[in-house]
Amino acid sequence: xxxxxxxxxxxxxxxxxxxxxxxxxxxxxxxxxxxxxxxxxxxxxxxxxxxxxxxxxxxxxxxxxxxxxxxxxxxxxxxxxxxxxxxxxxxxxxxxxxxxxxxxxxxxxx
Length: 110
Fold this sequence. Notes:
Blueprint: H1 8-20, H2 25-66, E1 74-75, E2 81-82, H3 86-96, H4 100-104
Antiparallel strand pairs: 1-2
């Protein structure tokens, strides 16, 4: 239970339920289902963080390959250089690749 992230008091409560016998089967199942929901929420939050890190890694990899962050800038009709929807560029690149490592791995030149 500790591996699931349950606190000592939650584990103690679960053990108490176990000691009470079969009359607590529903309560024990419900407790585990609640823990499952909490773990799934943590996984989703971590996945969001990982996705953001991959986006930033892609951004800097492409800038490193080009030798400048200017690679991410575009000219407007008014002659200005602005950052376009870079997130859209990333999503398009991501949709075309079959392995995230292609987008984010950067090999430094020796």
